[in-house]
Amino acid sequence: xxxxDGRVTPPINGDTQELDRVTIRFAGDSGDGSQVAGxxxxxxxxxxxxxxxxxxxxxxxxRAPAGSLPxxxxxxxxxxxxxxxxxxxxPDVLVAMNPAALKTNLPDLPKGGTIIVNTDEFTDANLRxxxxxxxxxxxxxxxxxxxxxxxxxxxxxxxxxxxxxNTKQIDRSKNFFALGLMFWLxxxxxxxxxxxxxxxxxxxxxxxxxxxxxxxxxxxxGETAELFPVHYRVPKADLAPGRYRxxxxxxxxxxxxxxxxxxxxxPLFYGSYPITPASDILQELARFKNFGVKTFQAExxxxxxxxxxxxxxxxxxxxxxxxxxGLALKSESLGLAVMVELPIVxxxxxxxxxxxxxxxxxxxxxxxxAMFGRNGECPVAIVxxxxxxxxxxxxxxxxxxxxxxxxxxxFVSDGYLGTSSxxxxxxxxxxxxxxxxxxxxxxSTFHPYSRDPETLARPWAVPGTPGLEHRIGGLExxxxxxxxxxxxxxxxxxxxxxxxxxxxxxxxxxxxxxxGDEEGSLLVLGWGSTYxxxxxxxxxxxxxxxxxxxxxxxxxxxxxxxxxxxLSRFDRVLIPEMNLGQLLMLIRARYLVDAAGLNQVTxxxxxxxxxxxxxxxxxxxxxxxx
Amino acid sequence: xxxxxxxxxxPLARKDFVSDQEVRWCPGCGDYSILAQTQKLMPDLGIPRExxxxxxxxxxxxxxxxxxxxxGFHSIHGRAPTIATGLKAxxxxxxxxxxxxxxxxxxxxxxxxxxxxxxxxxxxxxxxNNRIYGLTKGQYSPTSEMGKRxxxxxxxxxDHPVNPLSVALGAEASFVARSLDIDVHHLLATLDRxxxxxxxxxxxxxxxxNVFNDGAFMEFADKDVRPDRTITLEHxxxxxxxxDRNKGVRLNGTTPEVVDLxxxxxxxxxxxxxxxxxxxxxxYILSRMQYPQYPVPMGVFRAVQRxxxxxxxxxxxxxxxxxxxEGDLEALLNEGDTWTVE
Lengths: 626, 342
Known about the structure:
The complex is a heterodimer of chains A (626) and B (342). By secondary structure, chain A is of the alpha/beta class. Chain A has three domains: 16-233, Pyruvate-ferredoxin Oxidoreductase, domain 3 (3-Layer(aba) Sandwich); 245-431, Rossmann fold (3-Layer(aba) Sandwich); 514-625, Rossmann fold (3-Layer(aba) Sandwich), CATH 3.40.50.920. Chain A contains 20 helices and 23 strands. Chain A has a seven-stranded mixed beta sheet with strand order 11-10-12-13-15-14-21. A six-stranded mixed beta sheet of chain A has the order 3-4-2-5-6-7, with helices on both faces. In chain A, helix 9 packs across helix 10 (279-286), helix 9 packs parallel to helix 14 (390-405) and helix 11 (301-313) packs parallel to helix 12. Chain B has 342 residues and is an alpha/beta fold. Chain B has one domain (14-230, 298-320): Thiamin diphosphate (ThDP)-binding fold, Pyr/PP domains (Rossmann fold), CATH 3.40.50.970. In chain B, the strands form two sheets. An eight-stranded mixed beta sheet of chain B has the order 2-1-3-4-6-5-11-7, sandwiched between helices. In chain B, strand 5, helix 6 (184-196) and strand 6 form a beta-alpha-beta unit. In chain B, helix 1 (31-45) crosses helix 6, helix 2 (80-90) runs parallel beside helix 10 and helix 3 (102-108) packs across helix 4 (110-119). Chain B is globular. Strand 9 of chain A pairs antiparallel with strand 12 (338-341) of chain B, so a sheet runs across the interface.
């Protein structure tokens, strides 16, 4: 718990110390409620004006055996008095509800970090399950950390002994005891969580009261016990004025697609097969029936995209969502959408691959699949949000591009973006972009494959329009008429039309913006969820006087029109990616730039420090050469 | 209403449903007959041409949409039901047809067929069954009879064939029928029934591939032997067949028996066809009847009413709107815990 510049500020009022930023990780059994505790801590921090950034980490198993290592679930929240872009490289404080949670999370805690540990769970049986030979609380394992031992289970039980609940029910409330303690430690109000408890458990007043009581008990324990010499305050962040809510990437994605439907006046149809980490989007959209949203839980990934193509043929916003393995199954249908030139959107929330891989872990290794994973010359538009809140705008953008250019568009997010959260400054609906939809209606001028001279988009002629009856399909189309054609010259022309149509989207998207100098020794170029750590690393390096700039790509196919020019103004280009160099390959091939990669496929997002270190290395080597 | 010339819709004729595309099936193919009856049926449905959509997968049968002057979509192998589901669910005002074959519908697209049938999406599915892969030039299909020698099974197939109607009944299809390409009156009547059924209509049409599997159904479908070797199912009527209407089918437990009428056996002893039976057990028994042990049943096996997927989807939207009011995006964005930064 340090300040931005590494200084420790003197305590205020003798027992309160002010900090700029704190990162806390709640860890416990997947049934222990770490996610709930983390989310409540986050909401409270946001409500009192901190900037926040969170990331959950949960096992693929729904309920792995209690106390086991694979059963550990965690939630990390970073809150600060300044604008932050990541949930923190490493936690300052680890709340470990059992030995397994300690064991799996300790490697991430820097030396000197604080551990709040639930001593009650450090029984012989639990130690064995976690693979500890000896009790780490006693054998010196934790000597480099500040350990605060709290018998959370038994104190919770004592607080709730008159609650009328049984032992199992009482035990389930212990996350609120731990949360109460953390609220005291960081001077947070209890009211938002008390309100939430009241609402959430309104049908079960006994449980609601128990959770509220133990939350308060945890808070009072912090006040009374002399375990903590000081408590901490993280002042409000200086955020842009406006109304905010905390939002995850997947929630923002669903809202963005809904907004696209409102902005176009066309109904949204979402066909999807449940897949981690994209299922949230299906569940969110299924709630919006009073907006006319139709959700179809398909029998498989192929049916999901087929239904979206059918809906798009009918003039609706055809949307499907998936992750990498699902995109593989959809690829033939996506090729059909390219051939029939219908405006579907595919939301792909990447996860670790190949094959089933690590479904709950994040990765960016499906960029080349999105780009090339189909038979034939088969270009699609690709967009990618940078932050959880930005998923909203980019989801709208995906439909804007698909509709204006009559081209399937892939919205590429990832598990980290999808499940992490940040404050979202709420847009006013009136300020959102308008998206025009023009259906063909005039039989005297209609040809299924005539093209708009500017965009090369073909007309969208939907069933129900008299006089425009026509047939489309996956066989090659004759230019203009759309009849089946095996003509050699025609095929060459149509392949080039489809490529050119996507290329021309570059005229319709914003230039890539530079953060930092317009030219210099190093450009850090990113895409997707590496935005936060890359930007933070560049900001730190610039604070140290290095000539480093940052650019972030939200448009991956086509690239922004000015990208080549931007790249040419830097001596070196660094591309950090959670894959083995996929954007790197595209950039090198397209621009003949000797860009360097920083690549990690651990299933975890980059730490700021990793990128910063690579920046140092590249800038230093440049100096040496120069 | 302002003064406007209200033009009565001009009645359409078969020719209005014939597209300008040249039909490219092999001369003599059974598909011609199915196309002709489909085009012939269209004007009688009274549905404007622009409200009709034909969707197909891949295979010889799947070329049919090109020849219909309606909206059409020739998609990819096996996936027509998925596109049809998305289209019908999002545009319930359209009449949607799915044209498929034994390979397209039962092999690569078997999964989708199962699910569209159980969901009861309001579409008509016509499955051309020629028991062979025609477009890829003569490999065996999932309906090819066991032991059949084809280009890809020189020693005979070792695949047990699938029975399309048994599968459809197993998937709880609400309308299941069978017809024959060369029995044009029966085919037209069957397609007409299918088009008027609310829910998924599944029609298997025995269709002759005169190039790769010529005469596949001739043993019982040939005009001369048809009355004795097939049986036409009629709702509410006993199962009588034969050129002289002197044979019938009765049920002995769950086993059908062919009996001669007379000698103490009358029509009242026979199974009376009830296509509206809620449970599909008897329809299933009928679907198992094969030549030469039995006459091959033709006609409507099952026609029951149950809610369609597209109607239920619309209903949920109406219910949600009446319960929560028309969606308000601004309010939704501001839902939950929000805070203001001055």
